[in-house]
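ABC transporter permease
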Amino acid sequence: MSRSRRIRSEAVAAWHSFLRRRTAVFFTFFFPVILVVIFGALVRTQPTDGGLFAEPAAYYIPGYLATVVLFTPLSRVGSEIARHRDDNRFEKLATTPLSRTEWLVAHTAVNTVIIGLASLLILGLVVLLTDASIPITASLALLVPFIVLAVILFCGFGAVLGRLADSQDGVIAASNTIALPLLFLSDTFISLDQLPGWFGPLVELSPLTYFARGVRTLTYGPAAGEPFLGNLLILAALAVVLFVAGAYAIPRTD
């Protein structure tokens, strides 16, 4: 069996496994929907009043997208590794030609499709339920590589978490503990102006920061004030590093 067929076979199995877990499907697609409905449609932004939602609605699109780009890969890949380890599935995989890197590629591909669909849903709801206006330009297509690279990055990160955590519950707890601060402290919902000056350099350490800034430039227009190419290159470099680390972290049983 060729490498592409091995990856495709594992990806198909992972896709059907995801669809069988109705709770996972529900929270993957409806948790960000709930956020959009609550913060975008009910609370709404107050551009003149200051506070948490003091920017126009389109400013917060990166934050809504980050909910699926960040939480889904961390928890899904990490819990898959923990589940495989607990059920001795990696020992069974060791008897097949499928390598650790190919396994991670397959699961990353499935997560990319899932998160891509969820992102389309989020963008549609933001435009429908809020007064956000997304500039329709050729550069808007660059949302795709931003999302794909972010998924690759956090799938690799999730694989590392899955290796370090001692159980599936441990993976979920660790991923939530890491993802929740990153979600709000990576220039997504909270701008740098609302944070203490000393915290600014720490924001630069978050991989999600470069995703948020790049996406904001594409969806919020020139007012975002950030060059998207630099953020895209940084995100790509971090994605390569964390994916390699994640592939290496997958338990070796051969």
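thats it. Residues 2-249 form one domain. The CA atoms of residues 32 and 67 lie 6 Å apart. bye
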